Amino acid sequence: MDAHAHHRDLGHDHVTPLSAYFGIFGALMALTAITVGVAWVDLGSLNILVALGVAIVKATLVVLYFMHLKYSSKLTWIVVGAGVFWLFILLAMLMGDYATRGWMPTPPIV
Amino acid sequence: MSDAVLSHGAHAPASKRLQHHFDTMAQQKEAVTLGMWVFLVTEIMFFGGMFAAYLLYRMWYYDGFVAASRELDLVLGGINTVVLIGSSLTVALSVHAAQTGKQKQIVNYLVLTGILGLVFLVIKYFEYSSKFDLHAAHHGASMIRLFPGAGIFDVTGDLAPIASEMRIFMIIYFAMTGMHAVHMIIGIGILAVILWMARKGEFTPQWYAPVEIFGLYWHFVDIVWIFLFPLLYLVNRHG
């Protein structure tokens, strides 16, 4: 860790090997093909979950390798994680409200 | 720590890029990267609101969303997905070239990125114009096209009961892909500046923050499309 920190202080950053970039690109292409293919299969309500799942995997690959988050500081991880978590709050609250609207009867107007 | 940087002969050029309020190049890079990520988090929330609207309306108007989604051109959307992920690769390769000091490659990969970005926008233009033409065909050319999705679908056909649901989908489609395209156009503008700097040979393995930061922005716009493509073009293609 000390050696790594010293290395960074000299202005050197982690250089991702070219093979990793091309590998990630190949994976993103394959996942795109999968998401198109799955759309033609009737999975009922699972279709949206598969589509979102594949998109999340693709986004994670881009963030970790193309955007170098994998080699970024803990502070950067926290900022990114907080952003994603807040987005999760937005979507979870919205869907939670939508899903539970019918649970309680509407009170009569007095 | 700045002494260490200055005393290291190979890194002498780095010192003129070190702003006085930072101790080391690494600290400066950390601050620059973190600042860009904070901006991108605000962008996540910006697009997140529209994705939330999409998800809710999709549940309410599922049949309309399926029917309208099938009106989108899957081939053009698919090609654009490949083009945009390809441009993400070329940006990443440009950053790699900057890290390893390959001046010519930085420029070449940035040019390639710009070309792919423009290809994306041209394809998007043709997609949009075909939808606008449909709208004009239904309403006559004199119609004010406030919402391009509003009149696209023939309300006298089988789709009549869900025509208004399909309009909701088209308005969300234009809003989300439109804001995405605005981000692409801004990105190409920023790219032009970075390219100009790269041609002057301003980037070194010690200082290439603008290339890296531009890359973060470009990748983010790519990620937005990674979600838009399946959600808009692939709602339900079977049956």
Label the structural class of chain B.
mainly alpha
Termini Cα gap of chain B: 65 Å
Biggest sheet features of chain B: none
What number is the mean pLDDT of chain B? 87
Average of pLDDT of chain A = 87
Helix/strand order of chain B = HHHHHHH
Structure report:
The complex is a heterodimer of chains A (110) and B (239). With 110 residues, chain A is mainly α. Chain A contains 4 helices and no strands. Chain A has helices at 2-9, 18-39, 46-66, 74-100. In chain A, helix 2 runs antiparallel to helix 3 (46-66). The N and C termini of chain A lie far apart (68 Å). In chain A, 20% of the residues are buried. Chain B is mainly alpha-helical and 239 residues long. Chain B is built from 7 helices and no strands. In chain B, helix 2 packs antiparallel against helix 6 and helix 5 packs antiparallel against helix 6. Chains A and B meet through helix 2, helix 3 and helix 4 of A and helix 2, helix 4 and helix 7 of B.
Give a short summary of the structure.
Chain A is mainly alpha-helical and 110 residues long. Chain A has helices at residues 2-9, 18-39, 46-66, 74-100. Chain A has four helices and no strands.
Highlighted features:
heterodimer; A: mainly alpha; 0% strand; B: mainly alpha; 7 helices
